[in-house]
Amino acid sequence: MGEKRRIEVNIGGYVYKLMGEESEEHMQQVAMYIDEKIRQVQKMTSAQSLSRDYVAVLASINVADDFLKLLEHVQIQQERMEELTQKSKELEDKLDEYQDELMSLEQENLNYRELVEELQLEILRFKEQGKNE
């Protein structure tokens, strides 16, 4: 377990004492995020007349909404990454096939060149034989 840190944060005009293993900066960021969500609810609803608990619940709903949207975004990105990984594998397989085919064609080309050289030598021999006859 990590070292427990204690800090005081201001959320919605109230001071809270937090304790956690995260860095102070992280806990401050979390508190600032929640404070901002509470302020947004207060602005949108003229929440001065709403109870503190009601504002907290509405802010929690907004936080949950943000969280679920991020989860959905992460899921979409993971699916996209899986698709791209699969496509990459398919392309690598295709590349391997093409490289194998290229090697085969290069060998075939070499064989034909050797055959051409042999045939050219044979033609020269026939020409020489024809001159000598």
Automatic annotation (TrEMBL):
Location relative to the cell: Cytoplasm
Gene (UniProt): zapA
Coiled coil: 74-129
PANTHER family, alphabetized: CELL DIVISION PROTEIN ZAPA
Primary localization: cytoplasm
Name of the protein described by the UniProt record: Cell division protein ZapA
GO annotation, cellular component aspect: cell division site; cell septum; cytosol
Biological function: Activator of cell division through the inhibition of FtsZ GTPase activity, therefore promoting FtsZ assembly into bundles of protofilaments necessary for the formation of the division Z ring. It is recruited early at mid-cell but it is not essential for cell division.
A single GO BP: FtsZ-dependent cytokinesis
Assembly mode: Homodimer. Interacts with FtsZ.
Domain of life: Bacteria
Keywords assigned by UniProt, alphabetized: Cell cycle, Cell division, Coiled coil, Cytoplasm, Septation
